[in-house]
Amino acid sequence: VRDCIQKTLTEWSSKIGQEQNQETLEVLECTVAQAIEKINPEERDELKVSAKLFIVGSNSSSIRDAVHLACSALGVAQLDSVIIAPPPVEDGTNLSLEYLQPYWKELENLVQNKKIVAIGTSDLDKTLLEQLYLWAQVKPSSNQVNLASCCVMPPDLTAFAKECDIQLLTHNDPKELLCEASFQEVLQESIQNVKANKWIPLWLLRYSVIVKSRGIIKSKGYIIQAKRNAS
């Protein structure tokens, strides 16, 4: 992720020129157009567009922004599936249903507005997954389990997932895919005259476009949003 961000920022910075770098801009849209392949509408039915969303700052409205930006970047009306990684909780606090609810409600709104077809979770144990399933209007279609935390799927989780038709998937993403310090370091290295310590990452979305009939990845990439603190 760090390498992708650094390469994009460096290439973008070299293209916009020195003068614009020195301006104090409210919004920086750092895009390398040729790096993103928009989906041909004629091929859309043959492709599955899936995403995993990592919330860095604890703000549920980030979900809506992330999905809209992903759809816009890829030239599609909706994403086929979105999995959300558990948003960060304060030290000493356990992940709970109450904490997850505002994020899930945002996902449900996007399903109801036809921006997402299916929604899923990541790293929920059987108890929390069951609580979410019973509470949610739009049920989770999948739950990712980290390979680092278990070599074998927990039997209680497997049994519950089978009973409720929830697909269990595996992943090996680190707990923190991109920390604030790492992002600021890349920013400082890539763009001249930017006050990197003022910029805070909000969310990171990883997308993949898969050819359904052949099961191969046609394209993949990351989209990230950060904000600059005024202070």
Describe the structure in your own words.
The structure is a single chain. The mean pLDDT is 87. With 231 residues, the chain is α/β, with parallel strands linked by helices. It contains 7 helices and 7 strands; from the N terminus they run ααβαβαβαβαβαββ. Strands 5-4-3-2-1-6-7 form a 7-stranded mixed β-sheet, sandwiched between helices. A hairpin with a 4-residue loop joins strand 6 (199-211) and strand 7. Helix 1 (2-16) runs parallel beside helix 7 (180-190) and helix 5 runs parallel beside helix 6. The chain has one domain (1-6, 45-226). It has helices spanning 2-16, 18-22, 62-74, 97-112, 126-135, 155-163, 180-190; strands at 47-55, 79-84, 116-122, 142-146, 167-171, 199-211, 216-228.
Structural class: alpha/beta
Q: What does the overall shape look like? A: globular
- What integer is the average pLDDT? 87
Q: How much of the residues is beta strand, in percent?
A: 25-35%
Secondary structure: helix percent: 25-40%
Q: Mind telling me the C-alpha Rg?
A: 19 Å
Q: What is the N-to-C order of secondary-structure elements (H for helix, E for strand)?
A: HHEHEHEHEHEHEE
In the sheet with the most strands, the strands line up as 5-4-3-2-1-6-7
Count helical runs: 7
The separation of the N and C termini measures 28 Å
> Which segments are poorly predicted (pLDDT under 50) over 5 or more consecutive residues?
none
The total count of strands amounts to 7
**How can the largest sheet be summarized?**
7 strands, mixed
Number of domains: 1
